[in-house]
Records
---
Amino acid sequence: MRDVAIIGAGLSKFGERWNSGIKELMAEAGIMALEDAKITSHEIEMLYGGTMASGRFSGQEHVAALMADQLGFHNVPAVRIENACASGGSALRQGYMAIASGIHDIVVVGGVEKMTDVTASEATTALGGAGDQEWELFQGITFPGLYALMAKRHMYEYGTTEEQMASVAVKNHENACKNEFAQFRKRITIDEVMRSKVVSDPLKLLDCSPISDGAAVVVLASMDKAKKYHDTPIKIMASEQSSDTLRLAERESLTAIKATQLAADKAFRHAKLAPKDIDVVEVHDCFTIAEILAMEDIGFYKKGTAAKAIADGETALNGKISVNTSGGLKGCGHPVGATGVKQAAEIVWQLRGDAKDRQVKGAEIGMTHNVGGSGATAVVHIYKRAD
Amino acid sequence: MRDVAIIGAGLSKFGERWNSGIKELMAEAGIMALEDAKITSHEIEMLYGGTMASGRFSGQEHVAALMADQLGFHNVPAVRIENACASGGSALRQGYMAIASGIHDIVVVGGVEKMTDVTASEATTALGGAGDQEWELFQGITFPGLYALMAKRHMYEYGTTEEQMASVAVKNHENACKNEFAQFRKRITIDEVMRSKVVSDPLKLLDCSPISDGAAVVVLASMDKAKKYHDTPIKIMASEQSSDTLRLAERESLTAIKATQLAADKAFRHAKLAPKDIDVVEVHDCFTIAEILAMEDIGFYKKGTAAKAIADGETALNGKISVNTSGGLKGCGHPVGATGVKQAAEIVWQLRGDAKDRQVKGAEIGMTHNVGGSGATAVVHIYKRAD
């Protein structure tokens, strides 16, 4: 298999983008990524587009062909990838495979979600499609409810506190303040999180990532071609994915996401690296408890110990390990199909040294972690600045 | 790149499956395919699942993870592919690439759509998401309308008649009578098509493929492993895909689907074959005019001449070339995400000599052709019985 690198990255501004639809968001991120890679649209050989529920949010399926059309990639194979909130990360893995295999040299991976054209209730119902419709959503549980069950059990087993969970949100908002693309550039306090409205006990409003509009695009190239386009290609050291039961009730554990554990383990083995080698990581913090689970399941902390470490500041910008420097899903926003690709863009900027006020000093190796649903899909990538 | 073969195929019964949901349909097709391949679920390394609008039809996204869960493929990477009505064909191409690349040895490709849980109006709206929501559907045009425009122009330019279009439906219903999985095992006459209710002039009810429930599954293996599972692996000689503008109004021509022309041309070149070499082909006859366009765009007939040839019986079972022996989308049914995979299953059975009453005598080389929307995606595969 061939080495694959990211040679360009672009984002739209994340947030409530009332004046922009899927096409405008894609164009905003896509043009930025193509310009970054100094590449023209006619050099693109294939496109993967991640989006979760564009049919229900915007009445639009067939979104990858629309992206290819909108970005001027005439007649290339275009494939939409949908794996709930891991659609972006899964699309990135497909792009990686298409190049690693030798089938294509230059592939664009995009992610987009336009969520604010429907009511909050409709959005919650659409997002419920990430779980088991018959056995979970139809019975009345939504995603905050599923993660609340995980949080409750984590509190019971390990003594994790609501204040510790709140500290995840506080840190991610702090990072988001330094990210021009972020939805929430606003500091919050533990006290504000604790006093925010209960969504599903113990999760409160400020424990939850928001409804967002946004798009993200990266340009991938085989390593032998990458240097022609960008001085600092970012090599993808590993690209791994696992699945698990769609239903939370059928999992082996409520306090671990097995798909994350398996994908991370495969990724570390493939890259011949260990958790201690990672300088900067974007993890899937759809809810604050999810970041705690991720830090433990990837192997940065032993089970039951991450919450205290986060509350102690170990994962703040330029802490022991810098986590969610973009602001994460909580602070940067969570347009679901875009998130996995946005994570990759953030790591590209960090490893290039282009992350401005939120730059992790001396960052050389990065990671992204993208989860679908309550853990039925997990995708893990490891990245390194190419020599 | 490595050679890839199909070692197992399975279908659910197509039709109005009131008592079955996505899970039951997938299980029905999946178990048949696994048994056919004499393979156990724990040998499967990856799954691609094609479905177009499960979110709108069933409230269920994240369908590939659900399929993997349902079929017992524990923890494998599972990826949903959505390319409108070409979701199944696109999923097959991803499965092919995953093995050709050397990344995986055994991959399952499934397709499913459960369309009858919504009203006909809701289904038509959901299917409209295959076109440009803002520029087509929102303005009031649905898919019969888009294909009616193509039919009208084809009639104007080439003198194609409504009776010739009707002959496509008559032939495909005739074939469907011999297919135990088909939705419509019922002969119809030209006169019945002509007298059926106008849907969008000149297309009448019996020119249109139906709303259907169904699933299809194939098992792919690297050629070196294929013979261990099945005596007659079917080799994939080519797997090609192209895209075009989502909007019909922006195409170069209304009487040709350029994505089909490009994908077919690439496929013939890759396989070092020509249209005359194909013994049996499943083409995308979502409407009768679509089969006429396909026969011309793939290169079986010169532009403007296919309609007469079909009416003359050249494409009937064991005619000059046997087209849509399964009954096609018109006769067998069109559960959109399943269709592209069902086409592959039909060709597998034809090339093995297992197609019973609808067997094409001496069939050695087959083809499938799957279209998304009004032609924004086209996927073409060529198959040959392995020696």
---
Amino acid sequence: MIENNFVIRDVKFFKSTGEIETANIFVSGDKISKITKGAVDGEKIIDGKNKFATPGLVNAHTHASMTLLRSYSDDKALMDWLQKDIWPVEDKMTRKDIYWGAALAAVEMIRGGTTAFADMYGPCMEEVAKVVEESGMRGSLCQGLISFADGEKKLAANVELYKNFHGAADGRITVMFGPHAIYTCPPDYLKKVAAEAQKLGAQIHMHMNETQTEIDDCLKAYGKRPFEVVNETGLFELGMLAAHCVWLSDEEFEIIKRKKIRVAHNPGSNMKLASGICPATKLLAQGVTVALGTDGASSNNNLDMLEEARLAALLAKVDTLNPLAVPAPQAIQMATENGAAALGLKNIGRLEEGCKADIVLWDMRGVEWQPNYNPASLLVYSANSSAADTVIVDGKILMEGRELKTLDEEKILAEFTACAERLTKN
Amino acid sequence: MIENNFVIRDVKFFKSTGEIETANIFVSGDKISKITKGAVDGEKIIDGKNKFATPGLVNAHTHASMTLLRSYSDDKALMDWLQKDIWPVEDKMTRKDIYWGAALAAVEMIRGGTTAFADMYGPCMEEVAKVVEESGMRGSLCQGLISFADGEKKLAANVELYKNFHGAADGRITVMFGPHAIYTCPPDYLKKVAAEAQKLGAQIHMHMNETQTEIDDCLKAYGKRPFEVVNETGLFELGMLAAHCVWLSDEEFEIIKRKKIRVAHNPGSNMKLASGICPATKLLAQGVTVALGTDGASSNNNLDMLEEARLAALLAKVDTLNPLAVPAPQAIQMATENGAAALGLKNIGRLEEGCKADIVLWDMRGVEWQPNYNPASLLVYSANSSAADTVIVDGKILMEGRELKTLDEEKILAEFTACAERLTKN
């Protein structure tokens, strides 16, 4: 295993400008130390021939342990799905389930070129932290907070999570606070969350404006729309990663811009659950950071960020009837640089000297990559995630030649399967 | 190589009812001879463990040789794309290009679980016929007919194609007539096409109502919408595979139903080119045969039918804001049974005793297939086409364990790359 001091030789790579260049990418410690042209000698070398290097993909909104519920309930109305199928099984989840569910998610994400993820779930988020630590990935974790389901206890757990794990694993783990949504957290509770988060300097990860029903219910309860209600709780002053943002009024657009809220667009989940279409093109045009997320595997049904990049590009075009909306390079930026920004990570998401070495090498030998006029187009519109060949985080190789280096896939699969069987037997 | 007399043992398979069952599938000659439960002995056996059997996927609308233009021009306005980039290169295409372009397409389609395709292109469609013959796939071929570009000569070529190839390769090749679209074929020319096709008993494959511009131009030129104009040419009496059908009036819905027109829905292409959304849910609800197609690789950018099935399912839900629209089993039916019906193929597209043995075995061992509560959901919403493990057409194995049995992938790749380089150098 080549680690922490090597060069990816003569590789086509995606620049943060959206252009593609061929060069040698040197990795020293946790960073990209230099990018040069010309011959390379006497170094540990990864051959870049037939490979395309991009920053690691960042999954800006997921619920990792929900892999346990993948394909358990599909093609149902939202409330049937949640109340009859998902919640009863979630109620049975133990510490062990959270761990093995997240471990399988980590295997899947690394195999698909994802290097970082923002996770909202719980209880026992420290189990997800353990998976982040062991896998070598980056994780921005938060306890999902629902006021009526042990609201105080969960808030205390989020505080503990922050104290114990924010900045852990060489900074690969960061912690936010996770008020679930306006329909599960009334304003008074949100104010408590804001107070606790503020004491610690923590940021917020929250579902916002996912469905029309959510908006209608909020208007009925508070006479205002979700962003207007949350705006009065102090949460937006702390830094907010807002998942979904499908239904937005003009006033809510203004709040998003003014409060520098970062949006996690989840095209796959929004399509599958028929939630609607996030106005990503308009948000991007107005300078908002729009990242991409998979949402949980029970509403997607995978954690494949390359698929989300494709869906984001395709959906933007058909939604605006403009074939120039979200071109391939922008879709890659959303899945990488914008993702890192959404998670509040610095010097991540770009292949530049001095940035963290979070890199994916995509194998371009498959027929779907031929002819190879434009690797960015091919990655977004033609390839699939099985092209992820080598995955590097913090300069450490997590997968090489599709072989995992940090996780025991066989053991994880066996333990995960046992958990799933136990959870879903009557 | 196990061929033409074997059993797929103890395999989960997709029934035409949409249900999933486990059984042994016996193949004799070109047919599924029986489907049984229980132990199997003393036969040539393919182990069905961890595999999911579906009918072969049918690509109901493509332009196979356009693989040569994949990633050559993306994220452009339609007319810029066609006039500045695509057409000038197409003008340079030779017989050799058509052959190698289609050969690479065949490699890609087999690797993705596609067993049959409807192809509209030309000149030299006999080269595509050669690829169908050699690859072992099924192809429904037609010469693309454009009145102002050698219209008479191309019509004669379509007649020759029919005479020489309809029913060839043990019936794996069928031939239709391919009037390109209303904006490239005025009514008088369409009537000529209808007359020639009728003499031979041939069916029709045509682009219909792809963009709003097409409708506007048609209304301007003829005072009627495309389906109304074509309805007066006699083409619909012959049996019609209509590609796209994005913008439809109520009157056009009625024509589609009355004339039993089969629709090839191309969600990926329609999204990428920002053409609009085919009202697939409404067409299906009214009993119309809606199949799926990739369109050409320059507007998709791949020939991945599993991706089209996913897009069809996701797009239907978000378009209708109904999470129950096009559930996973229906998406599989669209990609298989409806595809076969759209191509006019009998006893194909279903895993039933007496049907042709066109079968794909999907490898379910990847993490994205875990837990495995519902293989149909997993195939449509979670897996990608790299899970296609074994592909069988007419009882013959075209791929096994992802190894191609009929085509020389390495040679095809080399020849294809040389063609693409020659075509696109200045």
